[in-house]
Amino acid sequence: MKAWLKLAGLSWFGRQAFRMAAMAVPPYKGARQLANVSSRGFVSPSAKLHTRQFYRGDHSFIGDDVVIFQAADAGQVSLGRRSSLNAACIVECGEGGTVTIGDSTHIQPRCQLSAYKGSLVIGAGVQVAPNCAFYPYNHGFDMSVPIMKQPLTTKGGIVIEDDVWLSYGVVVLDGVTIGKGAVIGAGSVVSRDIPAGAIAAGTPARVIRQRGESE
Is 54 found in the same domain as 38? Predict the structure, then answer.
């Protein structure tokens, strides 16, 4: 296993080396242990990467059926050290968009990270539950223009600061900053800034209390 990981990488041969190493461990999250063995990390054989400017930090993990797509006019996609994109996550980056994921951040299955026009910045130590979505852009609403021809717009992108927890099915919209240490309840739609250390929930998400305060 270690021998194969020494040869692993994003070239055709390197991907085959990842495949051989994966045969020695259980499937799904069982493969995450491989990312700890080698600084090359682990990229699942079933992951689909169409990248131009892609940085992958040491010991990072890209799970089964993850898709990372960068259009020709997209900015950089960056995955920090010891961070993970788990099964079936989709990272899509188009014109003017960038995606930055900090160190030791874990994004659970089936999350959608889509960046056009604006940037999506997720800090360090962030925990993202399954089925969350991030959209640092929007469509125009001019009544004289058909929806399919509306231009994309941005309010400045999305920033998720360090040590944030997003529960199952959270949607984060353009122009939002979620402060350090905040917690967002399941199924929330975050359309405005959430201060550091706050617990917020709802559609739209509203602050319920600060962490450490009694219910």
Answer: no
- Sorted by sequence, the CB contacts under 8 Å of residue 155 that are 6+ apart come out as 118, 138, 174, 175
Low-confidence ranges of the chain (pLDDT < 50): none
The residues that are catalytic are 139
For residues 204 and 138, what is the distance between their CA atoms, to the nearest angstrom?
Answer: 16
Structural domain count, the chain: 2
Number of H helices, E strands in the chain: 3, 24
Cβ atoms of 137 and 97 within 8 Å: the answer is yes
- The tokens describing 194, both together, are 């959430």
Q: What pLDDT is recorded for position 215?
A: 67
CA atoms within 13 A on the CB side of 213: 9
CB 119 within 8 A of CB 96: no
Do both 75 and 135 map to the same domain? yes
**3-class secondary-structure state, position 208:** strand
Q: Evaluate whether residue 215 is within a structural domain.
A: no
Domain that holds residue 1: 1-42
118 and 66 share a domain?
yes
Distance (Å, whole) CA 143 – CA 157: 24
What CATH number is given to the structural domain containing 117? 2.160.10.10
8 A C-beta contact, residue 205 and residue 193: no
Considering the entire predicted model, what is its pTM? 0.92
Q: Do the Cβ atoms of 15 and 28 come closer than 8 Å?
A: no
